[in-house]
Amino acid sequence: xxxxxxxxxxxxxxxxxxxxxxxxxxxxxxxxxxxxxxxxxxxxxxxxxxxxxxxxxxxxxxxxxxxxxxxxxxxxxxxxxxxxxxxxxxxxxxxxxxxxxxxxxxxxxxxxxxxxxxxxxxxxxxxxx
Length: 129
Fold this sequence. Notes:
With 129 residues, the chain is mainly α. It folds into two domains: 3-36, no CATH class; 46-128, Winged helix-like DNA-binding domain superfamily/Winged helix DNA-binding domain (Arc Repressor Mutant, subunit A). It is 68% helix and 11% strand. The protein has seven helices and three strands. A three-stranded antiparallel sheet has the order 1-3-2. Strand 2 and strand 3 form a beta hairpin. It is elongated.
């Protein structure tokens, strides 16, 4: 039996189970299921939240949301080692949350785009309520 027909069978079972309890939300369930992101998108979203799961990374993102900074400025601000900041910036860059540009021998970091700023702002607003 193919994976597709297994999924169809599971949906039919779900419909049958909900019919027994009135099936009141079956249309909503179908609509959500039809628009459900793929597994890879959920994994990517989960990885984004993992990046935000470390206080040092969140502090770095917050600092960069205020303006561009070089590594030595972030080290001074957060009072952590240059190695720790560089490691966290590398992870944030891989996650496309920060970007950098060269200025002579220095790398100047900033948040990648307005989405990162919005995520931070909304998170701060949420915890402040």
